[in-house]
């Protein structure tokens, strides 16, 4: 790759699959369960986390040498909290109905373990560019799972994707509904997100035996 | 870490500096986005009021507002009159929908006559709707609603919302199956006294066929939210009773 050295590229590609924050490190599960009933909410949540992770990792990395070690966790929290409030305000201003839907979960990005985890484990010890790549990589790894789960839950639960009726109309019985297909309301409930994440973990580990722990 | 960053003085100074920088940044963001956010809240109120009187884009099972692009236009078209009732006196006020019910309720604690009661009068297909905004407490936080009634205080439509009720339980007050149950319910009993609508766990009428029993079926697992909604309907809508009595005389 011309733009990125091999090592840098690994920072982005690793969290996408073999070191995925959700399926391998099992971080950030709570938001993955809560907001994935619709694809749109998953995408917005992913973008919000992408922004917070990318910028947050750079900020922490830039000030890593001047952060007093006694209060470093508080400093990290302040940085995340400030970024999350900015995201929240921007959503309220430009995507109001969506921000109501995501409601508390935007605020809960602060508690998303992926973010604090990457600050502590990576940004505190590496330069801004590497930290930026690490942040983006981990946020993308989170996003991939969110979008996959959101895709299946919306498709099977509501028969729509991003609000479009891709499977036909359940009331007028067109498309697949004409042959007796029904939406599975269970898909819309949080437990199904856990099961979908479980299936992803299963598929991933059966394809890559190295990931299986004894 | 070097020794410099370990000293107490440095730590305190760093903390102070950080708070000032972050505070300034957030204050700037909040101040510059405030007009857009206020506008969104206003549009949402218009959408809620229109929803209650049946101007919405509902399909079979979900609740959908009219889009924000057309909300102000439709609001002007369907809402023919906005009035404010204060201490028995009725005045017309074109910005009654902007009245903050939370603040009015706080004012009424000292002196009930200080509370302004907004009421929106809408016309659709030859029918007149009287839409009242009400507000109360659920389990975790505020719940509020817009109730559309006819001149006999029979509910014609309702929109419920909440700030932080439990998802899947109390939060279901804003689902169609709950809100639609209120349509046709009488707020007065057969003698014309105000009774409100109870969210009942034992009304033996889960399909809500009896519209004059002053009861709708509760949501399982949302007792306190339901009680809050009942209490809100009783306390806030009863204030409008004199207006409706006057209207019919």
From TrEMBL, chain A:
Any Pfam family from its record, for instance, is Rnf-Nqr
A GO CC annotation given for this chain: endomembrane system
Q: Where in the cell is it found?
A: Cell membrane; Endomembrane system
Q: What is its EC number?
A: 7.2.1.1
Topology versus the membrane: Multi-pass membrane protein
Q: Where are the transmembrane segments?
A: 43-63, 75-96, 102-119, 131-152, 185-203
> Where is it chiefly localized?
membrane
Asked if the record carries the keyword NAD, the reply is: yes
Superkingdom, natural source: Bacteria
List GO BP terms, alphabetically: sodium ion transport
Q: Which GO terms describe its molecular function?
A: oxidoreductase activity, acting on NAD(P)H, quinone or similar compound as acceptor
> What are the UniProt keywords, alphabetically?
Cell inner membrane, Cell membrane, Ion transport, Membrane, NAD, Sodium, Sodium transport, Translocase, Transmembrane, Transmembrane helix, Transport, Ubiquinone
Known catalytic reactions = a ubiquinone + n Na(+)(in) + NADH + H(+) = a ubiquinol + n Na(+)(out) + NAD(+)
Coiled coil ranges: none
Which PANTHER family does the UniProt entry name for this protein? ELECTRON TRANSPORT COMPLEX PROTEIN RNFE, NA(+)-TRANSLOCATING NADH-QUINONE REDUCTASE SUBUNIT D
Q: How does it assemble?
A: Composed of six subunits; NqrA, NqrB, NqrC, NqrD, NqrE and NqrF.
Summarizing the function annotation, the protein's role is: NQR complex catalyzes the reduction of ubiquinone-1 to ubiquinol by two successive reactions, coupled with the transport of Na(+) ions from the cytoplasm to the periplasm. NqrA to NqrE are probably involved in the second step, the conversion of ubisemiquinone to ubiquinol.
Give the family, as the similarity comment puts it.
Answer: Belongs to the NqrDE/RnfAE family.
Listed name of the protein: Na(+)-translocating NADH-quinone reductase subunit D
Q: Which organism is it from?
A: Mangrovimonas spongiae
Taxonomy of the source species: Bacteria, Pseudomonadati, Bacteroidota, Flavobacteriia, Flavobacteriales
Automatic annotation (TrEMBL), chain B:
The prosthetic group or cofactor this protein requires is:
FMN
How does the protein associate with the membrane? Single-pass membrane protein
Q: What class of enzyme is it?
A: translocase
Domain FMN-binding residue range list = 138-240
Listed EC numbers:
7.2.1.1
GO MF annotations for this entry?
FMN binding; oxidoreductase activity, acting on NAD(P)H, quinone or similar compound as acceptor
Query: One Pfam match, by short name?
Result: FMN_bind
Q: Which GO terms describe its biological process?
A: sodium ion transport
Q: Which UniProt keywords apply?
A: Cell inner membrane, Cell membrane, Flavoprotein, FMN, Ion transport, Membrane, NAD, Phosphoprotein, Sodium, Sodium transport, Translocase, Transmembrane, Transmembrane helix, Transport, Ubiquinone
Q: Localized where?
A: Cell membrane
Q: Does the keyword Transmembrane apply?
A: yes
- InterPro entries, per this entry? FMN-bd, NqrC
Q: Which residues cross the membrane?
A: 12-33
FMN phosphoryl threonine (modified residue): where?
223
Q: Can you state which reaction this protein catalyses?
A: a ubiquinone + n Na(+)(in) + NADH + H(+) = a ubiquinol + n Na(+)(out) + NAD(+)
Cellular-component GO terms for this entry = plasma membrane
What function does the entry list? NQR complex catalyzes the reduction of ubiquinone-1 to ubiquinol by two successive reactions, coupled with the transport of Na(+) ions from the cytoplasm to the periplasm. NqrA to NqrE are probably involved in the second step, the conversion of ubisemiquinone to ubiquinol.
Instruction: Family membership, please give it.
Output: Belongs to the NqrC family.
According to the record's subunit comment, the protein's assembly and interactions are: Composed of six subunits; NqrA, NqrB, NqrC, NqrD, NqrE and NqrF.
Protein name according to UniProt: Na(+)-translocating NADH-quinone reductase subunit C
């Amino acid at each position: 790759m011309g733009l990125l050295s091999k090592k840098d590229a690994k920072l982005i590609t690793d969290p996408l699959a073999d070191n995925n924050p959700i399926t391998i490190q099992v971080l950030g599960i709570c938001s993955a369960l809560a907001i994935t009933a619709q694809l749109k909410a998953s995408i917005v949540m992913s973008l919000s986390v992408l922004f917070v992770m990318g910028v947050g990792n750079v900020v922490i990395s830039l000030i890593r040498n001047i952060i007093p070690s006694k209060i470093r966790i508080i400093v990290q929290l302040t940085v995340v909290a400030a970024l999350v409030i900015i995201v929240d305000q921007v959503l309220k201003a430009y995507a109001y109905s969506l921000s109501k839907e995501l409601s508390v979960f935007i605020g809960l990005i602060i508690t998303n373990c992926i973010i604090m985890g990457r600050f502590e484990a990576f940004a505190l010890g590496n330069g801004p560019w590497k930290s930026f790549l690490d942040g983006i990589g981990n946020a993308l790894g989170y996003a991939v799972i969110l979008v996959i789960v959101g895709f299946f839950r919306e498709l099977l639960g509501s028969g729509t994707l991003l609000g479009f009726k891709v499977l036909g109309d359940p009331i007028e019985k067109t498309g697949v509904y004409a042959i007796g297909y029904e939406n599975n309301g269970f898909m819309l409930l949080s437990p199904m997100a856990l099961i979908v994440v479980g299936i992803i973990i299963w598929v991933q580990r059966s394809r890559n035996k190295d990931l299986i722990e004894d | 870490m070097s020794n410099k960053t370990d000293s107490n003085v440095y730590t305190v100074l760093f903390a102070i500096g950080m708070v000032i920088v972050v505070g300034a940044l957030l204050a700037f963001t909040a101040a510059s986005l405030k007009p857009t956010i206020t506008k969104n809240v206003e549009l949402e109120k218009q959408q809620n009021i229109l929803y209650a009187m049946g101007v919405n884009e509902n399909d079979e099972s979900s609740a959908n507002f009219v889009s924000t692009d057309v909300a102000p236009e439709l609001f002007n078209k369907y809402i023919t009159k906005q009035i404010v009732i204060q201490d028995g006196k009725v005045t017309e006020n074109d910005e009654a929908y902007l009245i903050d019910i939370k603040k009015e309720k706080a004012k009424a604690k000292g002196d009930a006559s200080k509370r302004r009661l907004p009421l929106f009068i809408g016309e659709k297909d030859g029918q007149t709707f009287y839409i009242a905004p009400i507000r109360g407490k659920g389990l975790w936080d505020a719940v509020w609603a817009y109730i559309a009634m006819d001149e006999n205080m029979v509910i014609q439509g309702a929109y419920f919302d909440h700030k932080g009720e439990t998802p899947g339980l109390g939060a279901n007050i804003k689902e169609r199956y709950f809100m639609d149950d209120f349509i046709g319910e009488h707020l007065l009993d057969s003698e014309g006294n105000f009774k409100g609508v109870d969210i009942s766990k034992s009304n033996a009428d889960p399909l809500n066929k009896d519209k004059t029993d002053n009861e709708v079926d509760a949501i399982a697992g949302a007792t306190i939210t339901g009680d809050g909604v009942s209490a809100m309907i009783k306390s806030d809508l009863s204030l409008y009773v004199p207006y409706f009595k006057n209207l019919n005389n």
